[in-house]
Specification:
9 strands, single chain, 3-stranded parallel sheet, 4-stranded antiparallel sheet, 223 residues, globular
Length: 223
């Protein structure tokens, strides 16, 4: 007899009270619990599948290694680091190339970067360690006005209010789904993809209510 799946969403702990979910995710966890997910800060024995929700994870040793998690560190990294996902969607996104910190130091001021930061700011605030820096073609602000976040959950693309989903988002999701991602986000205009982010740390965005957000996860994983 096939075992029934039991999903739990494991949330980051509150620093001051490790037994509690961090306040940043508290309301979300309550909404997820209402639609049928187990929630907590540690994996439960009865859970067959685990979904991790946390802050940005930059190092492999910081990612939980319970084999019940839908993602491993490798999936999280693929949907987080642009140098890893860019080759998959190169023709669908902003033209980019990659340099190490030494090359970045010699980029002349005045060249356009997206987001807009000076080279000095890049070096100070965007520490990359062993990852390259992405230098992206400048995009006029008016071309970004319809920037929308799309959630891809268990292979399906979700958008608020059931508005039409651009062809470029479907194409990007089709390609990215082949690499094992079960929950991640695509930020895109109607014409091109801006960036990809892993579902572990992606914000739901304020235009997506907690109820709608939780209903997407229920539809993707509990039905």
């Amino acid at each position: 007899m096939k075992q029934e799946k039991v999903f739990q969403i494991v949330y980051a702990k509150d620093r001051d009270n490790p037994s509690q979910i961090t306040p940043y995710f508290q309301e979300e966890s309550e909404a997820m619990q209402k639609v049928g997910f187990l929630v907590g800060t540690e994996p439960m024995e009865e859970a067959t599948d685990l979904i991790y929700r946390s802050f940005t994870i930059m190092q492999e040793e910081a990612y939980p290694n319970d084999k019940r998690y839908l993602h491993s560190w490798q999936e999280n990294a693929l949907y987080h680091f642009i140098d890893l996902y860019y080759p998959i969607i190169e023709d669908l996104t902003i033209e980019s190339f990659f340099v190490d910190r030494f090359a970045l130091e010699h980029i002349e001021e005045g060249l356009s970067l997206f987001p807009k930061h000076s080279t000095k700011e890049m070096m100070k605030y965007f520490r990359q360690e062993d990852k390259p820096y992405a230098i992206r073609r400048y995009v006029e602000p008016e071309l970004l006005e319809d920037d929308t976040r799309y959630w891809v959950l268990n292979g399906k693309v979700y958008r608020r209010d059931n508005l039409p989903i651009p062809k470029v988002v479907y194409e990007a999701a089709e390609r990215l789904n082949r690499h094992g991602g079960k929950y991640y986000t695509i930020d895109a205009t109607n014409e091109f993809v801006i960036e990809i982010n892993p579902g572990e740390s992606s914000d739901r965005h304020g235009e997506n209510t907690l109820e709608v957000f939780a209903s997407w996860f229920r539809d993707a994983f509990l039905k």
